[in-house]
Amino acid sequence: MSDPTVLLDRDGVLLTVEEPLHLATVTLSNPGKRNVQSPALWRALAEAGRLLPGSVRVVVLRAEGVSFSAGLDRQAFTPEGFDGEPSFIDLARASEAELDATIASYQEAFTWWRRNDVISIAAVQGHAIGAGFQLALACDLRVVADDVQFAMRETSLGLVPDLTGTKPLLDLVGYGRALEICATGRFVLADEAARIGLANLVVTAAELDAAVKDLAGVLLAAPRDAVIETKGLLRGGSGRTYDDQRAAERAAQGRRLRDLAGVGE
Q1: What is the value of pTM for the model shown?
Q2: Pairing mode, strands 5-10 and 13-18
Q3: What are 15's strand-pairing partners?
Q4: Sign of the CA dihedral 98, 114, 242, 196?
Q5: pLDDT digits over 47-64, tens only?
Q6: pLDDT in tens, 236-259
């Protein structure tokens, strides 16, 4: 197997691709600061999604160091903010349209992980707090180390989770538990994460990379088009009635049968 090809390496984000395996890895690469997040990192994550080759079928999101991501860089809460970026004070003074556009641009880092043409796996160890929790939630699947500590701290800071994390959290754990997790800002540890559906698998920290590699291998073994159709069915299912979902199943299966038989539409 050839060495992975580096497609992006900037602002704490590393994107590599293993073409023979159709596998891409996005690594948060600032372990000295526990992979804290900033607008520059979000732009790099969004760029990683745009650079993803069409051959890629599985994307692994991982992080260097002891923490997946300790959340938003606290520099964001200073009057100066980040160099070249609007501070929170600037955002508060912006028009509603400007504020909406700025937050929407930040959210682009979190939206592409659920594209139907890829399956994304978050490998999560240590702290996954605030923006870090939301980034893990952006992925389709989560494999976590037994030292994981999820927490949604935005409400504790007088803010709301606005990086696309509320919808997947709600879908995974239900309204009551999602509200309690967000409103209290408490930690959700590995055992609870597995029990309530936040984690697909819990392993030791030493086993995390191997477990994710094994899962990626199994996902890559299935025919790509069947996986894409199935993912689309499941993603749209919560917004459909039972009968609408039955119809969507029939349409998807029809496409697969025609494709397998080499019959055109």
Answers
A1: 0.94
A2: antiparallel
A3: 8, 26
A4: negative
A5: 999 999 999 999 999 999
A6: 999 999 999 999 999 999 999 999
Question: Residue 162 — φ and ψ, nearest 5°?
Answer: -130, 20
Rg value, the chain, Cα: 19
Query: 204-240, pLDDT tens digit by residue?
Result: 999 999 999 999 999 999 999 999 999 999 999 999 9
With contact defined as beta carbons under 8 Å apart, do 88 and 76 qualify? yes
User: Residue 20 contacts by C-beta under 8 Å, 6 or more apart in sequence?
Assistant: 1, 2
Give Cβ neighbours of residue 103 (< 8 Å, ≥ 6 apart): 162
Tokens 């903010």 belong to 81
**Strand bridging mode 141-145 / 119-124:** parallel
Q: Is the predicted pLDDT of residue 265 greater than 80, yes or no?
A: no
Whether the CB-CB separation of 228 and 114 falls below 8 Å is answered with no
Tell the residue number behind the tokens 């879908």, with chain if given: 171
